[in-house]
Amino acid sequence: MPHTTTPASGPLPRQVADAYVDALVELDPITGTFLGVRESSSKLPDFSPTGQEALAQLARTTLERLTEAEARPGAEHPTEKVCARLLRERLTAELAVHEAGEGLRAVSNLSSPLHHARQAIILTPSETEEDWAAIAQRVRALPAALEGYRAALDAGRKRDLPAGPLQVATVIGQLDEWIGTDRSWFAEFTESGPDALRAELTEAAGVATGALVELRDWFRDVYAPAIEGAPDVVGRERYIRLVRFFSGTDLDADEAYAYGWSEFYRLLAEMETEAERVLPGAKTPWEALAWCDEHGEAVEGVEETRQWLQSLMDEAIDGLDGTHFELAERVRRVESMIAPPGSAAAPYYTQPSLDFSRPGRTWLPTMGETRFPVYDLVSTWYHEGVPGHHLQLAQWAHVADALSRYQTTVGMVSANVEGWALYAERLMDELGFLTTPERRLGYLDAQMMRAIRVIIDIGMHLELEIPADSPFHPGERWTPQLAHEFLASHCSRPAEFVESEIIRYQGMAGQAIGYKLGERIWLQGREAARARHGADFDLKAWHMAALSQGSLGLDDLLSELSAL
Which InterPro entries match (predicted)? Predict the structure, then answer.
């Protein structure tokens, strides 16, 4: 039975955590939409400095309440202690980022208030006329939200806290695409609404499009000239702070950098072996993958690819459920989607609402393509869908009542979930699901990209020296240009993807290393549990216990996984 004691003297840590979620939804209706709170559907947050400070004050107040809760009888229960540890670590990391002014320079090609607002609109329920009326209100709220966003960036500019110029230029390009020439993304999105609300939705789309035009012009004419010459890398102090936010650990940058190089060499050797099976005599693994692009297994057509990815996830669920996982029926449901125009190049996943009225969804950005090589899809969908992000985050939603909503939603630590998803790719290789040399080479290529992320993300932001024994520019200092060249020469992805990735790493410093560093923790935890249980180790039981523990930062994840 879950531990639910509530002493008369006040709430315990899990109740403090869930009270924080309730208060957060009031301030941030985008979070409400991700959680499935219908009352959030018509609103957008206050992105201004005032709105950001309100969120920070909620965190400070919650930490005070948590300190009081930890002193109460019952707080020593393991379920309370784990939740308290996560809540304190997360809110402390978030406050450190806030107090350093990161919210005043939040421009990114993937993750910013602008992108979060559009994603919330996409995920707003749209089944009924009432739902669409709420969408119309939310779309109308975009100008005020973006005005607050501009106010935050302007405050950062005045405090000499500029965003990266490359991020700004990229977002201007994204806004051009969203605005369109003949009709905007908002006009296309609202087109599927009910006829009874046609005039209202059309007017709302026009208002929102006007706000995008105003933001784009402000970026181009005011903000970009003001920050010209600012660095596109963050430096050591900011980097370490951001890694704590994304990973829940204090980074040993030198050790992690060395680990990235060791994984590079290990994976390169494996890729060379597999490439010989794909294209005998290939000079490099990427020559073999280029052959796959032209002559290998592929899916033709955007809708056909969406359906193919759906069948891939359905087959994975059928093959894993009952053998390596034990899945509730609602966890088995996941939908394959095509990402809207103007998205970054990388596929992504959105988690289900807590009540599962909105299922988990994977999203494929097509980048104008209509033919998709299979080697580049299979491992990626094991990562984004099943058994990767979907099984973890849907399982969290499934057990939210037994833990807390905080541990299974807004307390998410990026490196934990990205580490699980990379572990999931490796698990599918271990279990024999990569049935052809092409598919296995594609998996190794995806792993290689994550190892290179560790090298170049740390390398360029800290301007580290490239090792003397490196095959690439030995002895030089990393720059974004060298990072781009290194990734492009060790990656099968097209040029526009590589460019989008480097821009992403510059705009979300410290996030991209969490994949490999998180995977390492998941593997170490599994092996420690296996050693502890010996012949009695049950991988299925371990998987389900691991996926049912909710969020943890990397500092705590290894000990918890090892003890399962």
Answer: DUF885
Question: What amino acid is encoded at 214 in this protein?
Answer: E
Q: Is the distance from CB of 138 to CB of 43 less than 8 angstroms?
A: yes
Distance of CA 439 to the CA centre of its chain: 24
pLDDT digits (tens, 9 = 90+) for 474-494: 999 999 999 999 999 999 888
Q: Six-digit token pair at 38?
A: 């219908």
φ/ψ region of 235 (left if φ > 0, alpha if ψ in -120 to 50, else beta) reads left
Are the CB atoms for 53 and 15 separated by under 8 Å?
no
What does the DSSP assignment read for 534-555?
GGG--HHHHHHHHHTS----HH
Eight-state DSSP code of residue 534: G
| Alpha carbons 301 and 371: distance in angstroms, whole number | 6
Beta carbons within 8 Å of 58's beta carbon, 6+ residues apart: 20, 23, 24, 27
Q: What per-residue string of b and e applies to 397-414 under the rule 16 or more CB within 10 Å gives b?
A: bbbbeebbbbbbbbbbbb
* Contacts of 236 by beta carbon, 8 Å cutoff, 6+ apart: 253, 461, 462
Residue type, 60: R
Separation of alpha carbons 544 and 110, rounded Å:
31
- Six token digits for residue 434: 């990569």
Look up residue 221 and give its DSSP letter.
I
Give the chain's largest Cα–Cα span.
74
Angle at 139 between CA 133 and CA 141, to 5 degrees: 105
User: 17-40: per-residue pLDDT in tens?
Assistant: 999 999 999 999 999 999 999 999
Q: How far apart are CA 18 and CA 83, in angstroms?
A: 10
Quickly list H helices, 124-234: 129-140, 142-158, 165-179, 185-190, 198-218, 224-227
pLDDT of 212 > 90? The answer is yes
